[in-house]
Structure formats: C-alpha cells, structure tokens
Specification:
- This protein is an alpha+beta fold and 423 residues long.
- Helix content is 25%, strand content 29%.
- Strands 5, 6, 7, 8, 9, 10, 11, 14 and 17 form a nine-stranded antiparallel sheet that branches.
- Strand 1, helix 2 and strand 2 form a beta-alpha-beta unit.
- The protein starts with a helix and ends in a 16-residue tail after the last strand.
- The structure holds manganese (II) ion (MN).
Length: 423
C-alpha cells in the first residue's frame, strides 16, 4: 500500500506538519517530540516525508489485521515457512523513472549535528547473487549526485558483495524506500544465508491479509516490492569511503569506518511520493531491528525448556542488547539453560533476564520485581567472558562479557512464598 494510504488509515494518530521544515536537524526535533506518532511532513524542504509511521506495534498489528499479541507468532511462523512472492507487471513507482537525477535534490535528512551528513535510513536493499536473493537494511550516507556510502554489516549482503568482487563484478542492488510493514519486518529479519527475506514478508502478508507480496522486475533485472514509494537502482562498487559518525540504535555516535560505495544509475518514484525515514534509536527503529529477533530467541529457548511464555528485547537495551524471557519451568536448571539458549540464538545479546510465566515481560516494574524477589546473585547469575558481542555496544572491545539473570523461583520452595498475593 502507498504510504499516503497508511497515513489515511492511521489519521487519528498522525501529526501533520504543514509548515516548512528543514531536512537538516529540524526534522529530528519533530520526531523526538512525537516518539510514538506518525509525523507527516508536508513541506520538508519542498518534499513530503514521514517518520514514526510504524513506531507502535499496535499499528503494525492493525495493518496486518491481527491482535498485537499475535504479532510474534505470525512473524515466527513466516520465518519458519517462507512463501513465494507474486510477480506482477506494474508498479506505481514506475510512473517516474529517471537516469538524470541528483540525490541531494531530495528529502533525505541529516538527523544529528555530528552525523557525517544526510542519511537514508529506511531503505531495504535487495540484492541477488548466484540465484539467492537477500533483503536487508543498510543506512546510506549521501556523497554526491549519484553515490552514497553504506554501512554493510558483516552479514549476507557483505558476503554477496565480497563474492561479486572476487568474481570481478559489481553487485547489482536496489534500495526500496516506503515499504509496507511486512516487508520492513522482512528487511529486519536475518535468518541463514540463502533464505530470501521477501518470501518471509510474503508469508507474513499471506498469513495475515490472505495475499502474497507483489514484486516487479526492474530494468537491471532485480525483483523488488511493487508497493515501494522510491526505488534506487545501482551497484555496490569496490571503492570504499569513510562512513559515519552516525547516531544509531544505541543513541551514541557510531564510529567512522571504511565502507563500500554504492553508485546509483536510476531512480524510480511514485507520483507525489512520501519519503520514509527511521530515526536511529526510535521505537520505529526498534520494531524492525529487535522485533524480528524475538521469535528467533523464542525458538532457541523453546528447544531447551518446555514452554516459552514471552520474549521481549527491551527498549532500554536498544531492542538489541537486553532481553527478558518468560518460561514455564519444570526443573530448577531450566532458568540457566534458557539463558544459554537465548545467548546462542541472538549473538548480539548482552544481558538476559529469565522470569517465570506469571511475570509480564512487557512491564519493566514486574520484571524488576521478579529480580528483587526471586533472584540471588550467588546462585542465579551467569557471567560469560570473552564472547562475541555486538558492534553497536560502545563499551565492548573485540569481545564482550555477557550476564544472565535467572529470576525464576526455585521449584523446591513453597510457591506461596513467591507468588503475588491476589484479592
Ligand atoms: Mn539474509
């Protein structure tokens, strides 16, 4: 669906700003002032933009016509059972196609004062190599009229780029902006290499709305979602450039790295397109970064304990570094096994708190209550040192330390000692 149609669907939540807003920093002030609302910029230096459109899980669930509690199951099922997309002939973004463009004449914003420049943040990259298709998010710093430098974390796109370079080729890519939530979830999903995340998105859409994702073939041969607002077609080159600083999920400035330069050849966009931006460290960022990992953690922990009642990557932990996992415990060792399984299933995880199923993982106060009343540091604490962690944690070195808190109640003790009194 077009972004404009989503804004209409959620019109009661939308903050519309008709006055001119500068794409340099001023845009961030509005997004920070409205952290959970879609902020619709009608005049972003002459362009239209939106941020925070998917800042609430309730809106994501509503778009998929499922209850919010069903989101994790739906995402998990679609990750386990990807389905084909439907190839169609027409995309609305084909209405405007150009090889003569300047990326700087655009709504692409600069978010924070010490950011290296203007960044595309909601772009889902499509790439294909040796019959495998990959979807993934990578921020892009604009360099000039046709080039950008992208933070390509060492995952699947990096692998494809490396293999293409080794074969003496430049990897063809397409960056899609203004996608539907199932595709943004697909873009934020990283399963094993070779699994096409557009098939995960298609499965998610079919499971919830009864229809597959529709894709079209671009001039460069790549197949991309037909509903995008903008599509940038290009190549990932062998050239590298300084990338960063940039404020990412942890709200600090990510350091400068040498990253690959992307060169664009063709830009497509809808009639009156709305540019989607995701502010680093916002709830909208977390929904497409952390949320798709929650079912993966749940699956991992489910292999070692009888039942997992809830999984949450917490906002304070940047929806990436800290998790709370609720389990139904059958033996006293289950809490610690759950800790180890959580670390194994999400390698960036730094701290995990395991609680019983009677604790609501979404309520920080309840989780702390469980730690206060059911945890003893000399028995329930697991500390691992020298483990691979996350590059986004500024306090980590080459390796990191990890901490697990087993805040489940001991099965040998009388339950009434540990259960909350009720009326
Ligand atoms: Mn992938």
């Amino acid at each position: 669906m077009a972004v404009r149609e989503w804004l209409e669907t959620f019109r009661d939540d939308v903050v519309t700003i008709d006055a001119p807003v500068s794409r340099e920093l001023e845009v961030t002030r509005h997004l920070l002032a409205n952290p959970r609302a879609p902020v619709h910029f009608r005049d972003l230096d002459g362009y239209e933009g939106v941020g925070g459109l998917w800042a609430s899980r309730a809106r994501i669930a509503r778009a998929m016509t499922i209850p919010e509690e069903g989101l994790l199951d739906a995402v998990g099922e679609s990750q386990r059972h990807p389905e084909d997309v439907r190839l169609v002939d027409h995309a609305d973004f084909s209405a405007n196609e150009s090889t003569d463009f300047d990326l700087r004449d655009s709504p692409v914003p600069k978010f924070y004062p010490k950011d290296a420049g203007r960044y595309i943040t909601a772009g889902v990259w499509v790439a294909e190599w040796e019959g495998k298709r990959n979807l993934s998010f990578h921020r892009i710093l604009l360099l000039d009229a046709r080039r950008g430098v992208a933070r390509i974390v060492p995952r699947h796109l990096r692998t494809m780029h490396g293999q293409a370079q080794a074969a003496g080729q430049e990897l063809k890519v397409a960056v899609c902006i203004g996608l539907d939530p199932w595709l943004l979830i697909g873009g934020g999903t990283s399963v094993e290499y070779g699994v096409d995340e557009s098939r995960i998105a298609s499965s998610l859409k079919r499971r919830t709305l009864g229809q597959p994702v529709e894709c079209v073939k671009l001039k460069n041969g790549l197949t991309v979602p037909a509903d995008a607002e903008y599509v940038l077609e290009g190549r990932l080159t062998g050239e590298t450039h300084d990338e960063g600083p940039f404020v990412d999920a942890v709200l600090t400035y990510d350091r400068v790295r040498q990253e690959p330069v992307v060169e664009f050849e063709r830009v497509y966009h809808r009639q009156d397109p709305i540019f989607h931006m995701i502010l680093g460290g916002s709830d909208e960022h977390f929904n497409f970064m952390g949320m798709p990992r929650e079912p993966v953690i749940r699956d991992g922990v489910s292999k070692v304990v009888p039942r997992v009642a809830g999984v949450r990557l917490t906002e304070g932990g940047c929806a990436w570094l800290h998790a709370v996992v609720a389990i139904e415990k059958h033996t006293d060792g289950d809490g610690k096994n759950a800790i180890m399984a959580a670390f194994a299933s999400h390698t960036s995880l730094k701290h995990v708190t395991v609680v019983d199923a009677d604790v609501n993982v979404w309520d920080d106060r309840e989780v702390e209550w469980a730690v206060a009343t059911r945890f003893q540091a000399d028995r329930g604490l697991v500390v691992l040192t020298g483990v691979r962690g996350s590059s986004i944690d500024p306090s980590a070195g080459e390796t990191t330390a990890k901490m697990g808190i087993d805040a489940t109640r001991p099965l040998t003790a009388k339950p009434e000692m540990f259960l909350k009194a009720t009326l």
